[in-house]
Amino acid sequence: MNSNCEILTLADLCRYLKENDNYLVLTHASPDGDTLGSAYGLKFGLKKLGKKVQVICPDEIPHKYDYFMDDSECDFIPETVVAVDVADIKLLGNMWERFEGRIDLNIDHHVSNTHYAKKLYLDETAAATAESIYEILDELGVEFDTRIANALYTGLSTDTGCFKYGNVTARTHEIAAKLHAIGVDAADINRIMFDTKSKGRVKMETMVLNGAEFHFDERCMILAVTRDIQKKTGCSKSDMEGVASMSRSVEGVLVGVAIKESEKDVFKISLRTYDPLDASEICGKLGGGGHKAAAGCTVKGSLKQAKAAILSAIKEALEEVDARANITQ
Amino acid sequence: MNSNCEILTLADLCRYLKENDNYLVLTHASPDGDTLGSAYGLKFGLKKLGKKVQVICPDEIPHKYDYFMDDSECDFIPETVVAVDVADIKLLGNMWERFEGRIDLNIDHHVSNTHYAKKLYLDETAAATAESIYEILDELGVEFDTRIANALYTGLSTDTGCFKYGNVTARTHEIAAKLHAIGVDAADINRIMFDTKSKGRVKMETMVLNGAEFHFDERCMILAVTRDIQKKTGCSKSDMEGVASMSRSVEGVLVGVAIKESEKDVFKISLRTYDPLDASEICGKLGGGGHKAAAGCTVKGSLKQAKAAILSAIKEALEEVDARANITQ
Question: Is B250's CB within 8 Å of A162's CB?
Answer without folding.
Answer: no
